[in-house]
Amino acid sequence: MKAVILAGGFGTRLSEETTIRPKPMVEIADKPILWHIMNIFSSQGVNEFIIAVGYKAEVIKEYFLNFYAINNDITIDLQKGETSIHSGNQPKWKVHIIDTGLRTQTGGRLKRLKSYLEKEKTFLFTYGDGVADINIKDLITFHESHGKYATVTTVRSPARFGRLAFEGNKITDFYEKPQEAEGWINGGFFVLNKEVFDYIENDDSIWERTPIETLASDGQLMGYRHSGFWSCMDTLKEKHLLEELWNSGKAPWKIW
Question: Over pLDDT 90: what percentage of the chain?
Fold first, then answer.
């Protein structure tokens, strides 16, 4: 199964870091958070990624073009013009980096990837700024069990995130970032059937609004409750918290 990762936004709430690079390339302990997210998937058998880029796309492209040199020891023979990369970090990843436009919204970015997912009945989809100790296999099994078009991983967090209303496991309403609410929220890590593309109109479609709201009202959105660790990296404070967890040797999302 392929995993789609959104990595094209401006990341304005983390502007201390994102003036020079896209948010998914902001580092936690010398590794981009995008690397951490990909390792969460890869550790559970998902090794093919479609990365939807936009803002400062060249930074992400350069990182993967130079991945082995960056992540391994190298020997450079300047006289012969030869470079040797010593064995070490060699993940079995296949990475598609697709430019989905500079100002395209989240739903529009997903819609632009339709041609890359035509042969996929089901695929994974998440944001490029959130980590969790999620069991991807259990998530997929849950999605396959209910037969609906979409599953969203739900987590508990403060009110500034989109709140969800449940009826059993079926999501009956989706409130995008209410002012006063606590409970289950959108934690990313979706499993989607290709039918969801019909719910996205164009580049201006915000995934978390009309597409998800309509899926919910049509009874096609189910929620997988994740009660373990989850965190996004929206602010410098959250970045520092994640770094502290990693440096302590107790990062909950490090399941590889």
Answer: 79
Give the residue extent of every domain in the chain: 2-247
Q: At residue 163, what are phi and psi to the nearest 5 degrees?
A: -95, 150
Mean pLDDT, rounded, for 136-141: 98
Please state, in angstroms and rounded to a whole number, the distance separating the CA atoms of residues 4 and 200. 16
- What is the Cα–Cα distance from 99 to 112, expressed in whole angstroms? 9
Q: Torsion angle, CA of 107/110/115/119, rounded to 10 degrees?
A: -120
The two three-digit tokens of residue 227, written as one number: 């009660």
Beta 74-77 vs 82-85: how paired, if at all?
A: antiparallel
Mean of pLDDT values over 53-78: 94
Strands (E), the chain: 2-7, 27-28, 31-32, 48-53, 74-77, 82-85, 94-99, 122-127, 130-132, 150-157, 163-167, 170-175, 183-186, 190-193, 221-225, 230-232
* CA–CA separation, 189 and 153 (whole Å): 6
Is 121 buried (19+), middle (13-18) or exposed (0-12) by CB count in 10 A? exposed
Superfamily covering domain 2-247 = Spore Coat Polysaccharide Biosynthesis Protein SpsA; Chain A (3.90.550.10)
Question: Do the beta carbons of residue 169 and residue 222 sit within 8 Å?
Answer: yes
Strand partners, 165: 173
Of 203, 199, 205, 193, nearest to 217 by C-alpha is 199
